[in-house]
Specification:
This protein has helices at residues 18-23, 40-52, 72-81, 104-121, 133-142, 159-167, 184-192, 223-233, 237-251, and strands spanning 2-7, 30-36, 56-60, 87-96, 125-130, 150-152, 171-174, 198-200. With 256 residues, it is α/β, with parallel strands linked by helices. The protein has a single domain, classed as Metal-dependent hydrolases (TIM Barrel, Alpha-Beta Barrel). An eight-stranded parallel β-sheet has the order 1-2-3-4-5-6-7-8. The chain is globular and about 45 Å long. It binds zinc ion (ZN). Residues 6, 8, 36, 92, 203 line the site of zinc ion.
Length: 256
């Protein structure tokens, strides 16, 4: 079944129909979803969703856009939340220089601290990177990542950057951007990266894939990403779904 490794169902855009939509996942071949925290509240909300739905899991952490808001108490609380049995990753963490020009320095510090945290609690991590690739790769390379390592969420950088990420022993997650017209870069990345190193995601409610582009995204549309990967790799879509599911279950150590 489809495994959506990065979603935001705590977002207010799901307030009207969250339960209805999540209750329809299993009937639509969506077998697992990881809901991602971007600050303390959304980390707690992610855990609450994972407690309510057996097929949902949580990641906890501070997004780079909220990094400057993270207090010492918040960090300690994230560390505590990370012990919850349904928390399978630290995230989303990373750098975003597109929105956070004036907080670049604090972003780098908080990114490093959260990589260390992931190592300490023995969890993998999910990385957000926007307009900050050089610093992001430098920090990942310099940091002692530990065995669990990380994955790049919604990867939209070049093939060269993909190679650097794979060389670090990390994985790459592909979202709806792959299906956008004229997106030559991500098409090249998908052709280049071995299927064993790929996972798929929605980042919903954002970035709905074609033919749903512009709509509120949800895991019900993630099949469009699997179909595009199958087309580019000359594989059967069921095979892509099975392998990316297996990759995600191994990576996040999910047994069911
Ligand atoms: Zn996200």
């Amino acid at each position: 079944m489809l495994f959506d490794v990065h979603a935001h169902y705590d977002d207010e855009r799901f307030d009207e129909d969250r339960d209805i939509i999540l209750s329809s996942m299993l009937d639509n071949n969506v077998g697992h979803i990881i809901n991602i925290g971007y600050n303390l509240k959304s980390s707690r909300d992610s855990i609450a969703l994972s407690e309510k739905y057996p097929f949902m899991y949580a990641a906890v952490g501070f997004h780079p856009s909220d990094a400057h808001l993270m207090t010492k108490e918040d960090f300690d609380e994230i560390k505590k939340l990370a012990q919850h049995p349904k928390v399978v990753a630290i995230g989303e963490i990373g750098l975003d220089y597109y929105y956070g020009k004036e907080t670049e320095e604090v972003q780098r510090r908080v990114f490093r601290e959260q990589i260390e945290l992931a190592k300490e609690v023995n969890l993998p991590f999910q990385v957000h990177n926007r307009d900050s690739t050089r610093d992001c790769v430098d920090i990942l390379r310099e940091s002692n990542m530990g065995e669990r390592r990380g994955m790049m969420h919604c990867f939209s950088e070049s093939r060269e950057t993909a190679k650097k990420i794979l060389d670090l022993g990390m994985k790459i997650s592909i979202g709806g951007v792959l299906t956008f017209k004229n997106n030559v870069k991500t098409v090249e990345v998908v052709k280049y990266v071995p299927i064993e190193d790929l996972m798929i995601e929605t980042d919903c409610p954002y970035l709905a894939p074609v033919p749903y582009r512009g709509k509120r995204n949800s895991s019900l549309y993630i099949h469009a990403v699997a179909e595009k990967i199958a087309e580019l790799k000359g594989m059967d879509v069921d095979e892509v779904i099975a392998i990316t599911e297996k990759n995600a279950k191994n990576f996040f150590d999910i047994k069911d």
